[in-house]
Amino acid sequence: MKTLTKASAIILACLLVLSFAMPAAAYDAPQRYSTETVGEIPEIVVPDPPTEQDGILVFLNKTELVLSTKPYLEAATVFVPLEEIFTTLGLNVTKVGSDYEIDNKSVADKTADVKAVFPRNGSKGTVNGKEVELSDTIKTNRGVVMAPADIIALVTNEKVWFDSYSNTLVITTGANKTDDILKIINYKFWMNGEPFYELSFNKFDLCYQISSKYQRDSEWPKEEHQLPAAEDALAQLHELGFRTIRVFTYSRIRQKYVTSEKQRERYYELMDVFFDLCDKYEIQVVVCLGLTCDDFSPKGENHFDLICNPESESRKNCYDFIDRFVSTYKNRRSVLMWEIVNEGNLDADVGINTRGLRASAYQIGKYNSDIAKRIKQNDPDRLVTTGDSGLRFAQWHLYKGVKEGKDVPDWTRDTLEERLKIYTMLNENIDVISVHTYSLGANPEEAYKVSDTDDRVRREDFSLLMEEARRMGKVLYNGETAVDADNYSESVYQRSLKYIDSIIEAGVQLSHWWTFHTDRQGFNDGYGWDITSGELLDAIIAGNKKLNETYVLNGVSVKTEGVWADNAEAKIITGSADAPKGVVSEIKDFDRGCGSVIAGTQIAAVVLAAAVVLRKKRK
Length: 619
Description:
Layout: H1 6-21, E1 57-60, E2 63-67, E3 72-74, E4 77-81, H2 82-88, E5 92-96, E6 99-103, E7 115-119, E8 124-127, E9 130-133, E10 139-141, E11 144-148, H3 150-156, E12 159-163, E13 168-172, E14 183-185, E15 188-191, E16 194-195, E17 198-202, H4 206-211, H5 227-239, E18 244-248, H6 261-280, E19 284-288, H7 303-308, H8 313-329, E20 335-339, H9 351-354, H10 361-378, E21 383-385, H11 395-403, H12 416-426, E22 432-438, E23 447-449, E24 457-459, H13 462-471, E25 475-482, H14 492-506, E26 510-513, H15 535-551, E27 584-589, E28 596-598, H16 603-608
Parallel strand pairs: 1-13, 17-18, 17-26, 18-19, 19-20, 20-21, 22-25, 25-26
Antiparallel strand pairs: 1-2, 2-27, 3-4, 4-11, 5-6, 6-7, 7-8, 8-9, 10-11, 12-13, 14-15, 15-16, 23-24, 27-28
Helix pairs in contact: 8-10, 14-15
């Protein structure tokens, strides 16, 4: 969160005053201001840059199909090797005279017969007796018969999408076409077989105002500020065409999660209401779980035990919370992504400055990794992000100074390679790199050396962040973003227009602006905290539209109406017992960007798992 409430600010000030007079509490810290030990810095191996992409990549859902003949683009049409692509998908291809017949007769558990006939060097054919026409003619290239990629959709009724920005052809099957689950394919967000882009909002107070119905809260004192206001906000977002928000799902009720069973059950009651509302208005949520607070610490422990000691009661209680919370809500369509905490990286290695105890970046990174694994044990389908802000400009040097036992913080500006070390440290087992950006790139002094021996500088901007996320083998999520309202002569609105354009130009797929329609009372939150109407809201609506119009374009022209009708019946099209030798040299699993290799002998299991299940379209 960008700023503190008045009450929080007063409490923090008191704690800072006390910290000068009192030793660090509960946790037995090895250093006066740090929970980290002095010693050697652990070896941090920064991932190698991804290999340069060789032509068009083809994916079946999240699995890369490595074809012996590469697809290619010709006059805006993607051509695929006709025999190889259908054989790989589990169908039979037979040459009869000058025609090619495609069928699924060898599929043992099919519930529908498929037979397609297409002439060599032609564009018109039949699918189950119905005439269809391809976007271009079938042709021979270097002795291989190549067909327009829309032939896949016409024959199998799979969703076929060519993303020209990543040079990626994605074939989406069955429930994957409608499950509303955010996936990573070739280092990009995809959902329901399409690239996913959105510029939307944080709605930080949504759960707070809902919980104030259950427990009095002076910031949301009346019913009109509580559940009715929360519903009005979601209804407005839905009407404006937004699909996602970011929300803090902790509250004052959860502060007694460990000590009071009544409060614990009351917390789940309000979370049921929260997810019901989001489902009702078809809004998906980046669920910030807030997992570094004292909610899970019994008497005698605190959040440093939670972060730094995997064997502590605090950690056990946190795992129990994850097991219940994630397993309870994982099947909600409204869950977009799980987020560990808000801006945990900003707490790392700055104890000297605040005269308070702080965990190190390394300890927070290990905690993130453990928490992410626990979340994925309960929900292997959803992506996990940290909730980190942008890196401090000296994040690596601050950590290095703590390891060296320095009494004065080292604010030396990190190089690009040192930034990558911190990203590596903080994001083990994490799917999505999280940053929070305010007026990013607006200040010419915000620059980073390219190397320790090079005088060139590079400004931190969205393009740099996108490159760093890809270097990590991950996707960038811009969790909080906005233009700061002070210290600039140009109007906030005009600067916001340029800022939004910089997000679009860099191709940042998911950003949440700070913030939409706060209903809390007694605060002068200022410009940007209550975006409900006006020119800035209009600019964000227009920016979201432009972002999608720019990038969400299907390079495969296809219409399957009249050939395959979507219905609730399962029609298994793909699937084969064996793939012909040499057709597929290997299949790479790009689940969340991680590449494990499945040998050719395992192809059948992978392909059979891609059964087509046609489902009703969402209302």
